[in-house]
């Protein structure tokens, strides 16, 4: 690419120099040397163009430079050396401009390759030694200095770090990381030096995989020309036929030459690749890597989108959503025991339980005599009691299931959650409801994709039908295909592809066949499997589905601009061809006119590089968003208290029910209501200024009022329970009110977190 750019630049300069020198000789009364100078420059360009066309045809490409070759050859054959020189300059300058546009458009893709580290700073005893990146192994302790790139994937050992992931993911703001957090290679240290633990070798790290994808994308240029080739296949025969007709009608071969000169399809040769490469560049700057230009064309025409559920629409990681205790059991005590034991396990669910306990600042105990049964659970001694955590059969052993377990199992099946049961000395004391949470950006992403032209969205998953339909209903996808094997996914996509352009988004190894079968496969590449990324044509370097909507908009507008450039250029060229065929446009004037048409078409195509470049708006910092999420996490025990009381309301004696309700009301007044008042008074005005508009937070504030009303309703029901004659009629209403409050609070928290997440992007 670089060598070609400088070679074309040198050739263009030499041709321009020859034209200028020849002009000076002509004006100085030396026409013969001038003609030889023009002839030499034109002949060089003719031979180089001939070689390029032969090579293109050997690769099976159309060779859209053919008319330019005929123009120069015809001018030389007819002795129109100045005309041949002008055409040669036009062709050379056009190629140089194309190379310049590609170099400018590819800067974002090249920037990542330039950031690849070559060395790492490894601790060896008390010394820090610089070693080759290939020498880094999992388990090495590394130092990342200020301004250096994280060399391999790992975890943070220092208390905190500030990372700039702009080159990798397009995120404009630095990200604060805390001890133990996963670090992705390719991010730049924007703060103080920090220590990290390598968890992957260099060749297995995310940066290496992304670099391989970028190199593949840069080397794959041919599909970007398909749109141009389709037009060239029609335009070239038309131009030659018109030139032949003009020659036959007038008997003047110069008139045929004039037609061919103005027919040189530089708008096709240049404008389409410039627009396509520009779109790839704009997408790369936002963390969307498109491997070749053919995918841009297909993205622009896509109407059907398939999603894999786990890791794509959902986070792919377990998260605690509720703690259910047996009658008389304390939810926090259940979680504390489970997390204390799960410290000894490396299972993903166990890590999620431990994380949830730490978010609530629970003090964990150290278990002993721990044994783990793969796929079932873990057992150990805590404070002299035998604790078992895992599946229902594993935790309960031979004991019959109590009634509260059956209710919990039914609710878990309806809500799509999985339960982890906790037993102490053989007696079930509670359960932890775990769920694969929907990504915060997923609802917004689906809305943006619909606006971008996706008419049909289908969720593919291997989950049970009731679980899949619950999640699909929450997200609002058009169709849910549950209990799907990789072969079934493949068949569904193949059937859809027969009806129109189909996209498939996935991240797992089992998604690779489906990604390859779709018209455009899209891999969640930041955490997705390497097989999925290799099979896909588009890779989302940052795990945000809304970036796909951005790519669709860019692809659609880039294709429209490319077609506009082609229509404009070819329309003007065809009009000039008719004028030349009638004898009113000589070859030299036609060459100059064609040069102007080329510049206009290319400048129009370059508009792609400016698509959706909006000034940076004020945003919430990552630290502020994390603080808001932690505030919500701190209030989750209150939500669990609501659910637990609603589940047990029918079986509790009136005195215990009233006592539980009064405790709940006290927690609501002390934690939930002050939080909502603070949001209304201080946080929402700040957010409103970021969003803009007259009253963008009106709906959220209305939800606050509904929460206040629900709490007031519970206070009235508490008063009714204190009157024995009213207690029985109030019980069904109390259960409905508790479930309604739990639903509105969880929905409100989810809406707030989605909003804050989007403002921090």
TrEMBL record:
InterPro entries: ATPase_P-typ_cyto_dom_N, ATPase_P-typ_P_site, ATPase_P-typ_TM_dom_sf, ATPase_P-typ_transduc_dom_A_sf, ATPase_P-type_domA, Cation_Transport_ATPase_IB, HAD-like_sf, HAD_sf. The chain crosses the membrane at residues 6-29, 36-54, 66-91, 231-250, 256-277. It catalyses: Zn(2+)(in) + ATP + H2O = Zn(2+)(out) + ADP + phosphate + H(+). It is found in: Cell membrane; Membrane. Residues 625-759 form the Hemerythrin-like domain. Its main location: membrane. SUPFAM superfamilies: Calcium ATPase, transduction domain A (SSF81653), Calcium ATPase, transmembrane domain M (SSF81665), HAD-like (SSF56784). The keyword Transmembrane helix applies. Belongs to the cation transport ATPase (P-type) (TC 3.A.3) family. Type IB subfamily. This is P-type Zn(2+) transporter. It comes from Zobellella iuensis.
């Amino acid at each position: 690419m670089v060598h070609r750019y400088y070679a074309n630049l040198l050739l263009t300069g030499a041709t321009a120099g020859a034209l200028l020198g020849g002009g000076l000789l002509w004006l100085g009364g030396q026409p013969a040397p001038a003609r030889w100078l023009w002839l030499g420059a034109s002949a060089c360009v003719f031979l180089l163009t001939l070689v390029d066309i032969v090579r293109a045809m050997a690769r099976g490409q159309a060779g859209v430079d053919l008319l330019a070759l005929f123009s120069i050859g015809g001018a030389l054959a007819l002795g129109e050396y100045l005309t041949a020189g002008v055409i040669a300059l036009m062709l050379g300058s056009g190629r140089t401009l194309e190379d310049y546009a590609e170099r400018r458009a590819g800067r974002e893709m090249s920037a990542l390759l330039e950031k690849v580290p070559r060395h790492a700073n490894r601790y060896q005893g008390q010394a820090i030694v610089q070693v080759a990146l290939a020498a880094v192994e999992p388990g090495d302790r590394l130092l990342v200095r200020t301004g250096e790139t994280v060399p391999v994937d790992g975890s943070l050992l220092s208390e905190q770090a500030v990372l700039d992931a702009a080159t990798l993911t397009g995120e404009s703001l630095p990200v604060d990381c805390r001890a133990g957090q996963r670090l992705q290679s390719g991010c730049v240290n924007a703060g103080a030096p920090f220590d990290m633990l390598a968890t992957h070798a260099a060749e297995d790290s995310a940066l290496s995989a992304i670099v391989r994808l970028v190199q593949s994308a840069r080397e794959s240029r041919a599909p970007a020309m398909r749109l141009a080739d389709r037009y060239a296949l029609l335009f070239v025969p038309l131009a030659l036929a018109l030139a032949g007709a003009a020659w036959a009608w007038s008997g003047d071969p110069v008139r045929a030459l004039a037609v061919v000169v103005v027919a040189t399809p530089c708008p096709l040769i240049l404008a389409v690749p410039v627009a396509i490469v520009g779109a790839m560049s704009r997408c790369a700057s936002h963390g969307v890597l498109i491997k070749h230009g053919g995918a841009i064309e297909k993205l622009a025409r896509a109407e059907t989108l398939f999603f894999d559920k786990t890791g794509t629409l959902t986070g792919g990681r377990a998260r605690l959503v509720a703690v259910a205790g047996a009658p008389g059991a304390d939810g926090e005590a259940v979680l504390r025991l489970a997390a204390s034991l799960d410290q000894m396990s490396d299972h993903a669910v166990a890590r999620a339980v431990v994380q949830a306990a730490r978010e609530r600042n629970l003090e964990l105990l150290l278990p002993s005599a721990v044994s783990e049964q793969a796929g079932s659970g873990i057992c150990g001694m805590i404070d002299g009691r035998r604790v078992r955590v895992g599946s229902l059969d594993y935790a309960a052993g031979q004991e019959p299931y109590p009634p509260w377990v059956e209710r919990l199992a039914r609710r878990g099946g309806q809500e799509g959650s999985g339960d982890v049961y906790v037993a102490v000395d053989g007696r079930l004391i509670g359960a932890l409801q775990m769920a694969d949470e929907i990504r915060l950006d997923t609802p917004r992403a689906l809305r943006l994709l619909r606006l971008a032209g996706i008419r049909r969205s289908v969720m593919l998953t291997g989950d049970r039908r009731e679980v899949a339909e619950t999640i699909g209903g929450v997200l609002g996808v058009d169709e849910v295909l549950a209990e799907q094997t990789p072969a079934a996914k493949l068949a569904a996509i193949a059937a859809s592809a027969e009806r129109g352009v189909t996209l498939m988004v996935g991240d797992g190894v089992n998604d690779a066949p489906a990604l390859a079968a779709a018209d455009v496969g899209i891999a969640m590449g930041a955490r997705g499997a390497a097989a999925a990324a290799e099979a896909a044509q588009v890779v989302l370097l940052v795990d945000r589905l809304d970036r796909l909507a951005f790519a669709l908009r860019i692809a659609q507008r880039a294709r429209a601009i490319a077609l506009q450039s082609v229509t404009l250029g070819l329309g003007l060229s065809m009009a000039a061809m008719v004028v030349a065929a009638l004898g009113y446009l000589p070859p030299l004037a036609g060459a100059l006119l064609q040069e102007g048409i080329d510049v206009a078409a290319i400048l129009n195509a370059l508009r792609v590089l400016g698509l959706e470049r909006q000034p940076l708006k004020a945003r919430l910092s990552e630290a502020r968003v994390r603080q808001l999420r932690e505030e919500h996490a701190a209030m989750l025990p209150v939500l669990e208290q609501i659910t637990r009381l609603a589940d047990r309301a029918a079986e509790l004696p009136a005195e215990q029910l009233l006592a539980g309700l009064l405790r709940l009301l006290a927690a609501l007044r002390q934690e939930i209501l002050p939080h909502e008042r603070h949001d209304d008074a201080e946080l929402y005005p700040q957010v409103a200024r970021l969003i803009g508009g007259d009253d963008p937070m009106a709906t959220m504030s209305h939800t606050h009022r509904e929460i206040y009303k629900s709490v007031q309703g519970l206070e009235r029901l508490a008063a009714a329970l204190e009157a024995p004659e009213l207690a029985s009629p109030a019980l069904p209403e109390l259960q409905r009110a508790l479930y309604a409050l739990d639903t509105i609070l969880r929905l409100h928290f989810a809406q707030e977190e989605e909003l804050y997440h989007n403002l921090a992007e």
